[in-house]
Amino acid sequence: MNSRYLYRIALIILFFSTTVVAVDRKKNNNAELVKSIQQRVNYLASDELEGRGVSTEGLNKAAEYIAKHFKAIGLNVDSYNGTPFQPFEITTDIELGPEADNYLHLTGPENDQGKREVTELTMDFEFNPLAIGATGKFETGVVFAGYGIEAPDLKYDEFAGLNVKDKVVVVVRKEPQQNDPNSGFDGIKSSRHATFQSKVSNAYQRGAAAVIIINDAGEPARYLSGMKHALSQYSAQLKALTSTFEEIESPTEEEIKKHKQALREAVNNISDTVSELNGDGDAILSFNGAGTSSNRKSMPVFFARRSSIDPMIVSAFGKSLAQIEAEVDKTLVPITGEIKGWSIKGSASLIQQKANVKNVIGVLEGKGNLKNETVVVGAHYDHLGYGGTGSLAPWTMDIHNGADDNSSGTTGMMEIASIIASSDEKNRRRVVFIAFSAEERGLIGSAHYVNNPLFKLENTVAMVNLDMIGKLTDDKLIVTGTGTSDIWNPLLDDYNKQYAFDITRQPEGTGPSDHQSFYLKDIPVVHLFTGLHEFYHRPSDDPEIVNFDGMVKVIQLAADITKFLQTSETRPNFKKAEKKRNVTNTGGIRPYFGSIPDYASNANGLALTGVSLNGPADKAGLKAKDVVTAINEYKIGGIEDFDSALRKFKAGDKVKVTILRGNKKLTVEVILGEPR
Fold first, then answer.
1. Which of 89, 337, 489, 608 gets the most CB atoms within 10 Å of its CB?
2. Which DSSP helix (H) or strand (E) runs through 551?
3. Burial class (CB in 10 A: 0-12, 13-18, 19+), 117
4. pTM given for the model
5. pLDDT-above-90 percentage for the chain
């Protein structure tokens, strides 16, 4: 065997041996990364952290955990008074104020003796303030507005010719022609006109002093039917408790104690239900019964018993509420008007609960001629806590651990920080790693950062966002923001040769995650996302559903992108990129305005964090930080009123929009677009 042949064989052996070593090393590295991310996700999505909900101690524990990691890998964590925490305050909840500050007093017309009878309603029995309203006091006349519906599409308007300004407006729950399949209101199931917010917005837009909602005629029967069903369930529960306990031959003292407690609860439930069945079924809603919050800063909203309001209706119309509802069902002609001779004095006290939250920020300083430019890598670390607003399982108070949303993204951001911090490029940009809070409340944490940046935004060259990267299936990866810079598509093409993702590219820079806040400041963004799934915003979003091997691939791609942004001599350009409307699909129910609400704002109106490129608002000259206070004659107190007002118009309509821009009041004309 000649030497040349042996040399070739040796080279082949050497090549394959080194290749195997490299592959093995990569496998080992991946195995270590899988172990690391699994540990992080398991902790961040553990019950100990209480679903990282706002106002939970678990959210603070998560912040400390992230901060500890930033410090351990050598990032600067002293940016905020020697800490990595950028603090800010948000509204978390609304509670009912002192009972003395919540009342409704009905004053009737003068009797033969010239006196007016005052009826003071009892809270929790005859009325309740509702959280969808606001704090306020009033003493004024009363108007009955039927079901409180304005439906131009159905040519039905209960506010037509009705002056409700500075008056208390009484409206009936639901809508006409219930259970009528031929009704324009879709009688088999309630239409949007039946919603509490729609009724309240209609009154608010016309300057009402307060709104009182009462049950419709059919509600008592529905309520009593529900109570009968509940009674049968409680009875079955009691039987099951008894039979289960009887099977225990020698119960312990602790078992006996627990059984007695369960029996007491079951008996109390049955007793309470029987009491309700003995009533008239005209149950009032609780404080949170119509919703848990409102953007409005004025106009109280109440729920009252029909029996408390009916005498006023009979006095004004000569008909009872039931008779009016029956007549409207038959004719579909509104019966509304002023309730002459009556007035209402009332007060609602709502207390906003605030919480102090924080973004967690670690900084890897730059070097060389790129050191003054910044790359941001971010992920939100908050979730839904015990459910409530935002949960797709609102019937439960189980912990929503949010393993994919967004323990996965937070973990990915932390691992990228470790990778980038271990490199030693001599010419590199500053990289700012941010764990955002209050994302689930409307991107509030990222909005706060871009409005209060640690480093000048004009020197921020790009933002990489990781949100829900834990459910990679069939290598399908969604990348949003690819149209915000010319660099993204070629960069993805190049790196994906190694990873072989099936990438769906979405060019728009807007979307329901924190990259949007940066895009609206003209910063190129890219958002990595593995897609929605059946566990999203539910208690079942636990670590068991996470694809950790898939996470590794996504993290490695994001790290590659970050390295490129950190070291590239060429700064990425910025391009506006909005989602294109599918003109063949106009199934929306209101015309297009093209505004992006600022959910963190406390303004009295609809504050904007931006406008969509070439949308109606953009063409009319509206800008970020503008506050919309009226559309034509309709007052706007928040997103509910804005949405309700737009539904009164159609595409192509020209509307006068009143805005506050700083201290200036301006009026602009907006031509509404086709529904989206």
1. 608
2. helix 548-567
3. exposed
4. 0.72
5. 67
Determine the 3-state secondary structure of 462 from DSSP: strand
CA 218 vs. chain centroid, Å, equals: 32
Alpha helices in 332-408 (DSSP H): none
Written as one letter, the residue type at 537 is: H
Q: pLDDT averaged over the chain? A: 88
Q: Grade residue 218 by pLDDT with cuts at 50, 70 and 90.
A: confident
| CA pair distance 58, 407, nearest whole angstrom | 13
Tokens 């964590």, residue located: 77
What is the b/e burial string over 400-439, where b = at least 16 CB atoms within 10 angstroms of the residue's CB? bbbbbbbbbbbbbbbbbbbbbbeeeeeebbbbbbbbbbbb
Does the pLDDT value for residue 28 go beyond 50? no
Please give the C-alpha separations between residue 26 and each of 21, 23, 329, in angstroms, as whole numbers. Answer: 8, 5, 73
Given phi > 0 = left and psi -120 to 50 = alpha, else beta, which region is 82? left
How is the chain split among helix, strand and coil, in percent rounded to 5? 35, 25, 40
| SS3 of 143-201 | EECCCCCEEHHHCEECCCCCCCCCCEEEEECCCCCCCCCCCCCCCCCCCHHHCHHHHHH
Band of residue 27 on the pLDDT scale cut at 50, 70, 90: very low
3-state secondary structure of 39: helix
Q: Which of 410, 407, 380 is nearest to 542 (CA)?
A: 407
Enumerate residues 6+ apart whose C-beta is below 8 A from 544.
Answer: 403
Residue 57 class from Cβ within 10 Å (0-12 exposed, 13-18 middle, 19+ buried)?
exposed
Tokens of 586: 């106009």
Task: Find all residues with CB under 8 Å of 296, minimum gap 6, and list them.
Answer: 133, 134, 204, 637, 638, 640, 641
Contact 421, 566 (CB under 8 A): no
Q: CB of 571 within 8 A of CB of 523?
A: no
Lookup: tokens for 589: 């129910």
Confidence of residue 85 (pLDDT cuts 50, 70, 90): very high
Find, among 558, 560, 557, the residue nearest to 568 by Cα: 560
Which helix (H) or strand (E) segment holds residue 665: the answer is strand 664-671
Find, among 468, 362, 360, the residue nearest to 406 by Cα.
468
Task: Dig out the tokens for 549 from the structure.
Answer: 């091997």
pLDDT of 231 over the 80 cut: no
Burial of residue 468 (CB within 10 Å: 0-12, 13-18, 19+) is buried
How many CB atoms within 10 Å of residue 630? 20
Q: Read off the tokens for 107.
A: 């004053």
> Concatenated DSSP letters for 228-249?
HHHHHHHHHHHHHHHHHHHT-S
* CA neighbor of 216 nearest in space, from 287, 120, 148: 148
